[in-house]
Amino acid sequence: EQLVKLREENGSLRRSMESSNYKAVSGNSNGTLQRSPSRMQRNTDQEKTSSVLKQNGYGGGASQVIQKNGPHPLPVHYKGDALVEERAYFASKQASLENEIKQLKQQLRCYSNKEDDTTRRLEDENKRNEFLQQQLNELKVDKEMIAKGSLYEELVNMESTTQKVDNSTSDVDNFSDVEKVKDEMASLKKALQGAFHERDRALQNLSRLKQHLLDKDLEDQEKMDEDSKVIEELRAICEQQRAHIVQLERALKVEMTKQEESKKTINDERSRSNEQIEDLQYKLANCMNALESKDQELLNLQSALGQYYAESEAKERLGDDLAMAREALAKLSESLKVANQGIEISRREKDEVVAKLSQAEKMLADGKRSLQKLEDDNSRLRHALEQSMTTVNRMSLDSDNSVDRRIVIKLLVTYFQRNHSKEVLDLMVRMLGFSEEDKQRIGSAQSNVGKVVVRGVLGLPGRLVGGLVGGNSAGKSTHAPQDNQSFADLWVDFLLKETEEREKQKASEAAARLSHEENQTTSRSASNLQASQHIANPGLSTKPHQFDRPDSDEFRMVPLAPMYTSMQTPLK
Q1: DSSP per-residue codes, 214-273
Q2: Are 195 and 25 within 8 A, CB to CB?
Q3: N- to C-terminal Cα distance for the chain?
Q4: Whole-number mean pLDDT of the chain?
Q5: 208-217, 288-297, 539-548: which range is least confident on average?
Q6: What proportions of the chain, in percent to the nearest 5, are helix, strand and coil?
Q7: Residue 399 region, left (φ>0) first, then alpha (ψ -120 to 50), else beta?
Q8: How far is C-alpha 336 from the geometric centre of its chain's CA atoms?
Q9: Other CB atoms closer than 10 Å to residue 122's CB: what's the count?
């Protein structure tokens, strides 16, 4: 109800404000339009002007007056009086408008204070609907701000119009033509029309705001109705819950009584069971004592049985040990027999190896002798080769242009057989007497040409080459043998003999190595047999020592390693 009353008061206040504003604006515009032509028409009748203004309204009256007057200029003293009257009129009008604005502001303040009081009362009375009231307050504040804004805009417009009028009056003093004043009046009319349009827009906005507020109020009322329905439903639910809680409490009380009764019965049964348990514990203690006595007797019997079993197991172990000892004695006797047989076999092998060693030593001695002989022959042959090379060099100085054809053939064959050896090529250069250009072409130019020692071609000694140099000279007949054989064939025979002797030496070395390896194997087998005899017959360890000493003495007398080294040194 209070909200409805407040809304009605707000509507009445808005209507009064709108009517007052409309009257003020309309009066201002009518006064300006009615008095300005009356001042300019002092010579005409005032009754005609008033009738014309009443008949034609704002714009028609002004246009008819201007048409009747025409473009005739006014006198100067009339101009001054008209300006003074216009200033006085505008000042009075401005004062009246300011008073009206102040009154409206006071009324607005009073109404705002009243609205604040009513809102406070509503807040105190409707604590449950605070959220809705806050929205209403915000809407009211917006409404007041819009109203104040519209009033301020109207004031600004009025002030602007007054300023324009003042400016126009000041300009009239300066200008002498009335046409300019008419133009200014037309502009003022246009400004007034714009203000009217703005006022209409403000009124439309106010109507929209009113409708919006009404819609909001309807929505708030609907929400309040819905909230009241929800509250009633919640109250019904709460009552149902309370009834259910009462039923549950009753059921709880019944269950509590049942639990107390069950506790009593359980306590009675517990006391009975405790008595029974005490009786059983007493009986159990007696049984345990009887069991302990019987356990003691059983332990005594078990100890006696353990002693009996231990004695019987000791007897069985001794019998097993005797049987094992007998079997070990039989095995040891058999192993002794096998060891004696192995010793005899090793003695025989040792004798054979000693015989072979003696033969190998003899072969080595023969090989050494043959090696010494061969070394002597080699030294002699080298000496002869050096002498023959000196003779060849001497002969080559005498006979530079004559060389035997067979020597050239031999040199070429050996050169290609030895894969283009540099030594054969050097010998060919020396013997055939190549020039420096030929040497450079062949690529065999050397720094030291005057060396004396030159190796033989295919093992051919130097003296044969010296004998062959000079073609069919007398030296060839002197050195040739009587059995019509060439020196090359003799030298090949000598080389074959030397290779046979080397093969024999190698065979003797292989035999010496074999004998040395056999001696090592026999010594290892003997040591293994001795170890087996020691293991098999620990009590008979003195006999193997007797057999071992002569063997070791014999093997110590044989110089195995030094002989092998001595064989290798002369061969090298």
Answers
A1: HHHHHHHHHHHHHHHHHHHHHHHHHHHHHHHHHHHHHHHHHHHHHHHHHHHHHHHHHHHH
A2: yes
A3: 145
A4: 67
A5: 539-548
A6: 90, 0, 10
A7: beta
A8: 78
A9: 18
